[in-house]
Amino acid sequence: MNLTPKQLKILTLIRDSRVRRGFSPTMQELADQLSVSKVTVFEHVEALIKKGALEREPNKARSLSIPDGVSLPDEEREMSFPLVGKIAAGVPIEKYADSDELDLTEVFGPRVGQTGATFALRVDGESMRDEGILHGDYVVVERRNTARNGERVVALLSNGETTLKTYFREEGRIRLQPANDSFDPIFVTDCTIQGVVRAVLRRYD
Q: Is pLDDT of 77 > 70?
């Protein structure tokens, strides 16, 4: 898809706003952040819609969204490290003879047959502690708007709050289940799935 740098910046701003706030920025907000006129932003947005890089719900404010299957360059950066062996966390093991490479794109990228892009969020809170997702960790999220039972999702609630929980669709409702007995499940009739967690990263300084 042939996009200009300004159009890529608009897509990035829209994606980040939807992930952080649950809705897209207004044309004026985009214009202010790009230091251009509102008319210029409108022209870029219309061009992006024609190219299939953006979707908009008619007659609804802040409804710009990036379709499934459209990824941004920062969601496709390749990272790989030499995989030189195994390390024992229990009993000692023999020296690892082979050399290989750990490609994080393969580990964290879309599953086979899927085209969803990925992004990262920093975890704030302890509600998923018992599944090893701790405060300050980073979760790698596949951008999707659907989820299966038991998947860990980034869900946008009707009050505008975004939460990280395990998703279960039950009869007549959705249960967003924490992994910490100090927190109660969240029951809703509907929510917006922003993505599904693919991996957890923890940094040791």
A: no
